Amino acid sequence: MRNGTGEILRRLRANGPLSRAELARRAAISSAGVTKIIAQLNADGLIREREGLGHAIGRPPVAVSLVAGARRVLAIHLGAGRLQVAFSDLMLGLGPARSFEFDFADPIREIISATADLAAEVLESAGPDRGMVLGVGVGVPGSVDASGRVNTHSILAGWRDVAFADAFEAALGLPVVLEHNATAIAMAEARYGAGRDARSILHLFLGKGIGAGFAQTGAGERCAPVEIGHVVVDPGGPACRCGGRGCLERFFSEQPLRDMVGDQGIPRSALVGAAMRTEAWLGVYEHLLQALSTAVTLLGPERVVLGGDLNTAPDAFLEALRRDLPPRVMPQQRQRLTVERTSLPEPAGVHGAACVALERFFYTTGPAAALRVQRLAAST
Ligand SMILES: [Zn+2]
């Protein structure tokens, strides 16, 4: 359902500062409606109004902008072997991240409890501003249920049906929402990063595995994980942990690239560059191109964004994709398709988790609904 407050907040995020008249026009809300919403946002300390927008003669229009520091969300990224926690303001400005290393083979109960302890410490550090924290976003390494509460399956971690939201809500007393890491990072990239001026992006991410997320903003917003690592590029090829054979991940992810380079100690950020200098590169690159062009053909993103350890790949890698990808997709896609590096700073996963929390607890309905959820959660 369309929510006027959410409409106004999203426009201020994307295009602010804006005059009230411009807000009314862009959000298609009556000026009386905008006045009412602005009064409430002002009372909540979420916006500020300043004179001096534009070049109008006479009384200058008043510019409305978001107060980024007026509320916060807590972001938790459960990545491959590393857990990170940080606060984010309303414009995805992150505070310092705290982290610890873990192993996917560790008992899940221990991982949850260590995560909750670290998150509680970070919450404590907010002091009296603790009440300004709207909720918690958690990025997990696999698919989540439709309500964003359970990590239903993680091939990378070997987890099934882990109820992270229940566990963290009980431990932290705040509403919690989960999202697949790949989707969360794609959403952050689309709203705040290299996808800001594109209607849809495919965010391709090299870490331990190779993953992707699709995000479409504006009209018809949607986002989804794209299991590009498990597109079969060599039928009958080597067995994959997903149960299939010949998946892209068996050729293009951390371990196979390391094996190709013959150096187990090289930093992951230098891996693609080193792999490009080997004889086997062309075959592996062809596999990547096959899976990527399939994803682009099916999903039709305007932009492919290279994240994680693809962001540090040599320019020659970016240039090769810009040259080789367009001829492999449909003509109408070819004309507008661009390939860019990420512009989200590290840690990308924490930015992703923060973006998910901001969408759920602020930009969809404004902060009031999130606080209501919080009180309900606290009273049960
Ligand atoms: Zn697979």
Automatic annotation (TrEMBL):
<keyword id="KW-0418">Kinase</keyword>
<dbReference type="Pfam" id="PF13412">
    <property type="entry name" value="HTH_24"/>
</dbReference>
<dbReference type="InterPro" id="IPR036388">
    <property type="entry name" value="WH-like_DNA-bd_sf"/>
</dbReference>
<dbReference type="InterPro" id="IPR036390">
    <property type="entry name" value="WH_DNA-bd_sf"/>
</dbReference>
<dbReference type="GO" id="GO:0016301">
    <property type="term" value="F:kinase activity"/>
</dbReference>
<dbReference type="InterPro" id="IPR000600">
    <property type="entry name" value="ROK"/>
</dbReference>
<keyword id="KW-0808">Transferase</keyword>
<dbReference type="InterPro" id="IPR043129">
    <property type="entry name" value="ATPase_NBD"/>
</dbReference>
<dbReference type="Pfam" id="PF00480">
    <property type="entry name" value="ROK"/>
</dbReference>
<comment type="similarity">
    <text>Belongs to the ROK (NagC/XylR) family.</text>
</comment>
<protein>
    <submittedName>
        <fullName>Sugar kinase of the NBD/HSP70 family, may contain an N-terminal HTH domain</fullName>
    </submittedName>
</protein>
